[in-house]
Design goal:
single chain; 226 residues; alpha+beta; 10-stranded mixed sheet; globular
């Protein structure tokens, strides 16, 4: 599989989603975070768009969201988030195991995702993600293997305050297993709001004296883009 080509394709899909203004329906607003959805063209489920403001520069926010080593310290939806293969400085493959959701009615899933960082003009960054087959990590009987169709974060400077960032996230996760779509639709918007709130708390913690110890962990090289 040409992972790099797929990664570039996925980033373009995420960019296309951001430019598509038709058919979105707001399904939740909370704490200045808006979640909208529309039917996914990839599977029988929804594509979600989540929008929020993060009080951090775009470069720092992108680095924070991209690097895998500290993800489980702030993302409360995950048990495991490990880089299992590096393709190049801006393309990696990660193995993720989620926590259970909806009071345990959605059991943990695992995912193998191709994650890619790309910087665009105007200091806009896209971190895209798409599930792939990776022979070193076949599905296990311990978890239902889920599938992330083209997903991603778009980070850009806030026009009225460039020291802060607008974060727009696109998610279309096929949970698989024997799950009623209604359970997913009922729980996903709240989980996505929680993700943004967790990210805000996580990046704030990195600015504290205690958190700075792991902020400068050598991953700045990811952001030295062409």
């Amino acid at each position: 599989m040409d992972y790099k080509a797929l990664a570039q394709e996925t980033a373009q899909e995420v960019l296309d989603y951001s430019q598509d203004t038709s058919g979105w329906k707001v399904v939740k607003t909370s704490k200045k975070i808006t979640v909208s959805s529309k039917a996914s063209k990839k599977f029988h489920g929804n594509l979600y768009r989540v929008e929020g403001i993060i009080p951090e520069s775009t470069a720092k926010l992108s680095d924070f969201l991209y690097k895998p080593e500290n993800r489980v310290t702030w993302d409360k939806s995950l048990k495991v988030y490990n880089m299992v293969h590096r393709i190049d400085s801006d393309t990696i493959i990660c193995h993720t195991i989620t926590q259970s959701f909806a009071m345990g009615s959605i059991s943990p899933r695992d995912f193998i995702d191709l994650v890619y960082f790309k910087r665009y003009e105007g200091n806009m960054d896209i971190i895209s993600s798409n599930s792939v087959d990776f022979p070193a990590y076949p599905p296990s009987s311990n978890y239902v293997r889920g599938f992330n169709h083209a997903c991603g974060y778009i980070c850009s400077p806030l026009q009225e305050n460039p020291a802060h960032s607008k974060l727009v996230m696109f998610i279309q996760t096929e949970m698989r297993g024997k799950l009623s779509p209604s359970i997913i639709e009922a729980t996903m918007p709240s989980n996505l709001v929680s993700f943004i709130l967790n990210a805000k708390d996580g990046i704030k913690a990195l600015r504290s004296p205690v958190g700075r110890g792991y902020h400068h962990s050598g991953h700045a090289s990811f952001l030295k883009k062409k």
